[in-house]
Amino acid sequence: MTREEKKNVIQDLTAQLGESSTIYLTDISGLNAERTSALRKACFKANIKLAVVKNTMLAKAMEASEKDFGELPEVLKGSTSIMLSETGNAPAKLIKNFRKKADRPLLKGAYIAEAIYIGDDQLDTLESIKSKEEMVGEIIGLLQSPAKNVISGLKSGGGKLAGILKTLSEK
Length: 171
Fold this sequence. Notes:
7 helices
């Protein structure tokens, strides 16, 4: 690979890091061709971009990026694959599900919305992170609950002002 090609790869990686708010660094070494193909297929279905990267080039891309990756460059040892996603917990769920049949991929570290997670032991924490859609759903559910209680209370008051006031005062 020429210097110019390396420079282009680093620029591409820097752009991808800049565009992504969810970045997982994993180790998929040791997977055979069949399992690697299955992992790539699962990533595609989950809208996760998976790429094997050279540690030195990824480190330079992290350095060139405007984001603060903290201790994340320190995990760039051995084989490294990068997973990019729009949803913070999607790669963690995929990794956990995939490891039911294999011992890989291993989580080296993750960068999610400016938070840094280091080590495979963080997988459960990352899996429990709520996506934007899940948070919006929960908030809507919480907001609807009091309104439903008030409406049902008003209906149970019999439609008369004294009944409505009594019902509301009890609530």
